[in-house]
Amino acid sequence: MALSEHVVSGISTAQVGAEYVREVGRNSFRGHHGRGGTETVYVVETDRGVTGWGLPLGPGDPAALIGRNLAELIDPAVGVVDPGAVFLDYPLHDLAARVLGVPVYAMLGATGDPRVRAYSGGIYLDDLDPADAPAGLTAIKANLAQDHELGFRDFKLKLGRGYRWMPSQAGLERDIEVTRLTRELYPDAEILVDPNDGFTVNALVEYLAAVTDCRLYWLEEVFAERYEDYRFLREHLGTLSWQPKIADGEFDPDDAYILRLAQDGLLDIALMDVTGYGLTAWRHLMPKLVEASTEASPHAWGFPLKSLYAAHLAAGLGNIPLVEGVPGHTLGTDGDGYELADGHFTLSDRPGFGIELAG
To answer: Ranges for the Mandelate racemase/muconate lactonizing enzyme C-terminal domain (predicted)?
Structure first.
C-alpha cells in the first residue's frame, strides 16, 4: 500500500522505560546514572488504522500534522521531508515501514546485515563505589562478567577517573589497570575506551604508552575536538605499534566540522547520537562519510530502544561496524526488538522497528 493512501488521523503519547541490569555509576564528569528511566514516545495513527511509534528528537507541534497526507511528511527513500515533522523522525519511519510491510532496515536499503555486532556500553566507574568502601577492580570484573553472560563479547570502558573523582595520576593509573584487566580477562574482545573528554593530551600519551599491547579498537572523546589536538593524536598514533580508531562527534555535533575532520583523516568513526541527531540526518550524512572513508556508530547509551534504532541504521545503511548496547531491557513494550547472542543483535523481520507497545 502506498503512503499517499494514508492520512494522519491521530497523534498521542505513551511512556516506555529502561531497566538496566545493575546500578550504573559515574563517568569522568557526571554522577551516578542509576537503574534506568522513562521516556515519552509519540504514537502516530493513520485513517486506515496503521500505527507507528518511537522516541521524538525534541519538541514539536503534533496538532499541525493531523489531517496531513503521510506521503507529504516522509519519503521512504530519503526520510522525513517536512521540517515541521522532523521531531517525529522515528515514529514516522516506523509508520512508513509498517505501511510498506517491511522492517525499517529494509526500507533504508538493507545495505548491512540484520545480525549486527554490538558492544556493551555499560562499564562505568563502578570501582569507585560505594564511597565509604570502594569495590575497586572487583566491581569491574563483576560487570564485565555480567555483560558477557548477557551475550556481549566487546566492551566500552569509561575512563577519566582523574578528571574529577581521583587525583589525576592515581586516576590515570586506575584507567590503565582497568584496561589491562579487561584485556587479560577477555583476550578476544574488542575494547573501546571513552574518557568523555576527561583526558589531557599528556595523560593520553601516557595512557597509550601503557596499553598499546591491549590492542584497543577505538578511542572515543578523549578530549574536546580541537583540530590541532586531533592532528597531534593522529601523528602520535602513527608512532605506536597498534593504532586504535579515533571516534568522536557525540556531543553537540557540528556537521561541517565533523566532515572536515573525516576528510582530513583525523576521524575514523562518527558518533552522533541516535535521537540527538536523527535518522533522517544520518541518512543524509552517511554517503558523505563513506566518501571520506569514515565509518559511523551512532551513540545509543541510555535506552535499549536507542540501541535498536542504531542496529536498524547499521543493517539498513551499512558502514557501521558495531553499535552500542545497553545492558538492560525496554519496559512497556513486547520486548527489545532484537535478540542478543554471541556479541550480536539479531533484528526481527517484522514491519517497522519490530517492537510493539505493551497493552
So the answer is: 137-240
Which grid coordinates are listed for 294? 569514515
Q: What is the CATH number of domain 3-101?
A: 3.30.390.10
311: left (phi over 0), alpha (psi -120 to 50) or beta: alpha
Q: Distance between CA 6 and CA 46 in Å, rounded? A: 6
Separation of alpha carbons 137 and 330, rounded Å: 29
Tell me: the pLDDT tens digits for 88-135?
999 999 999 999 999 999 999 999 999 999 999 999 999 999 999 999
**CA–CA distance, 6 with 337 (Å, rounded to integer):** 25
Other Cβ atoms less than 10 A from the Cβ of 58: the count is: 10
Phi, psi dihedrals of residue 170, rounded to the nearest 5°: -65, -40
For 115-347, CATH number?
3.20.20.120
Handedness of CA 134, 140, 202, 251 (dihedral sign): negative
Q: Is 79 in contact with 280 (CB distance < 8 Å)? A: yes
Element (DSSP H or E) covering residue 74: strand 74-75
> Which residues of the chain are in CATH 3.30.390.10 domains?
3-101
Q: Outline where DSSP puts E strands in the chain.
A: 8-24, 34-46, 51-54, 74-75, 79-80, 115-123, 155-158, 191-194, 218-220, 245-248, 269-270, 295-296, 323-325, 328-331, 338-341, 344-347
Pairing of strands 191-194, 155-158: parallel
What are 268-326's pLDDT values in tens digits? 999 999 999 999 999 999 999 999 999 999 999 999 999 999 999 999 999 999 999 99
Which residues on neighbouring strands pair with residue 325, listed in sequence order? 120
* Length of the chain counted residue by residue: 359
> Could you tell me the three cell numbers for 241?
605499534
